[in-house]
């Protein structure tokens, strides 16, 4: 209730940093509809119960690093989202944020989670995504087709996984950075013509 009250008493509030606290819920954030940036790093969050459809419709930057989150699907209720940062959580899958739910998403940071696969379609509809960080997860393989929904991707980080082969087929026409360090690669023949 206190954060919701803050939203009503400070209706022009654009940036809210609640880093390094012991917050376990985001339910109180519903009243802060003008927020553009919200940082909840290093808390005790297990779910995003306060990000109901359209509740934070202006939110562009959401930082959830170092929590205990298992899902980020609720972030799809933030249609203006441009950056979603959630390293060091308990995520086991890539959130499905495409399909018009987060059409402006440009950066998705999922470093150091427990993601073991990226199924086809998981990133579909993220045409504005320019940076994807899946480093230090449990990926053992990655079908390049799973990345086909991200034609604007400039940076792809897959470091410190367990990939035995590079993602293929890889058709990302504007990709500038590809990080594959610290994997189990023995050959790059998957990219051979």
TrEMBL record:
This is Uncharacterized protein. The keyword rRNA-binding does not apply. The keyword Membrane does not apply. Signal peptide: none annotated. The lineage of its organism: Eukaryota, Sar, Stramenopiles, Ochrophyta, Raphidophyceae. It holds the Pfam family LRR_8. Keywords: Leucine-rich repeat, Repeat.
């Amino acid at each position: 209730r206190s954060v919701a009250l803050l939203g009503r008493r400070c209706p022009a509030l654009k940036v809210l940093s609640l880093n390094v606290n012991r917050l376990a819920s985001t339910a109180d954030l519903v009243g802060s509809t003008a927020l553009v940036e919200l940082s909840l790093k290093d808390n005790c969050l297990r779910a995003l119960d306060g990000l109901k459809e359209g509740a934070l419709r202006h939110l562009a930057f959401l930082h959830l690093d170092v929590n205990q989150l298992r899902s980020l699907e609720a972030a799809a209720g933030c249609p203006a989202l441009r950056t979603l940062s959630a390293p060091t959580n308990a995520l086991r899958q890539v959130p499905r944020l495409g399909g018009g739910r987060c059409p402006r998403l440009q950066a998705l940071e999922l470093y150091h989670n427990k993601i073991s696969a990226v199924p086809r379609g998981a990133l579909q509809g993220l045409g504005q995504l320019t940076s994807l960080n899946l480093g230090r997860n449990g990926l053992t393989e990655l079908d390049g087709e799973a990345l086909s929904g991200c034609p604007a991707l400039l940076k792809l980080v897959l470091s410190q996984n367990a990939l035995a082969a590079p993602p293929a087929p890889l058709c990302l026409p504007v990709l500038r950075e590809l990080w594959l360090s610290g994997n189990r690669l023995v050959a790059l023949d998957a990219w051979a013509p």
